[in-house]
């Protein structure tokens, strides 16, 4: 399963959900001078990396020209699976953010953080020179940033501080307590540790027709046992 739009995303706090919706609807300016990042934190499988991908597309869509909004099938790539956020346009050409960089900090661990930070700086400087072609922002996902040492994170914090307004940083982590406090302060913090069971249930029913044979009460037990882990939920739904 993958979310097709922001209504399919389940956050832990409804206030944070309202905040994120206001950002993607353009009711609040983002990034702004105070915050240029989003820190998505919570347990395994709760949808942090997926949400980072989805938000990049929704923020591009928000700032696109009216003609581009209607001429393309806006979608995001998640591990080679394309998910459309405007299903009614699926016959049109796909468009994804022109500048989207996913950095797996567990793989590019602290030893290579200097070159990763340099790479981000290069992309940022190039877009300064030429402007962002076919996109409004450079999107940088720092996935599982807790894998980086304090020194590597401090380096990244410096980069975020100097970053132009068209760079957006998405930081994901299972261990918020291992994230540099300066990075936490520069980001809008969003907790993903599961949410209202009925929200998970609605998404599950959308994806699996056979769940129509089960009552909400029966499925709520499955959702609660998963603790908000979509991997667990998908597995449990397939077993029913
Ligand atoms: N909102 C959602 N609705 C339905 N399925 C989802 C949703 N978000 C994520 N998923 C599913 O759950 C899987 C795990 O999501 P994801 O990798 O984003 O979680 P994560 O929080 O980044 O996990 P980890 O902490 O292990 O990195 C995805 O492959 C996807 O199939
Ligand atoms: Mg992840």
Describe the structure.
By secondary structure, the protein is an alpha/beta fold. Helices cover 43% and strands 17% of the residues. It has helices at residues 14-25, 48-63, 66-71, 113-130, 150-162, 181-186, 197-207, 216-226, 230-239, and strands spanning 37-41, 73-78, 81-84, 94-95, 100-104, 138-143, 167-173, 187-191. The strands form two sheets. A five-stranded parallel sheet has the order 5-6-7-1-8, with helices on both faces. Helix 4 (113-130) packs parallel to helix 5. It is globular and about 55 Å long. The mean pLDDT is 91. Adenosine-5'-triphosphate binds next to helix 2 and helix 9.
Key terms:
single chain; Rossmann fold; binds magnesium ion; binds adenosine-5'-triphosphate; 5-stranded parallel β-sheet; 240 residues; alpha/beta; 17% strand; 2 domains
